Predict the structure.
Amino acid sequence: MGLSTHVLDTMHGTPAGGMQVKLYTTRGDEAVLVNSFALNPDGRNPDGLLYDSASLRPGTYRLVFDVAGYFKARGVALPEPPFLNQVTLDFGVADTRQHYHVPLLVSPWSYSTYRGS
């Protein structure tokens, strides 16, 4: 099971390969950086799961996606400041026997997420 993420660029209709992502564990206002990586060409962590089932613990987590940096690198002209800069998703893991998949669908102007499987 474990924790995973996947990002789709809805402006171009492609995975968001190259987007920079940071993963944190959180407790209240405190956030501790766990991992920082660039998404592979399929829009996923190149190392696979962010946490495998043995390492994932109940608690709260944060994923930070560098949306503006990604679209600027793709040559998209963005206003200054961009409408979306970094998208931050705070979420909780209650049952580590289940898989937690956190997808992001994003354009320079909007995003959505959900708990996937």
In short: The radius of gyration is 14 Å.
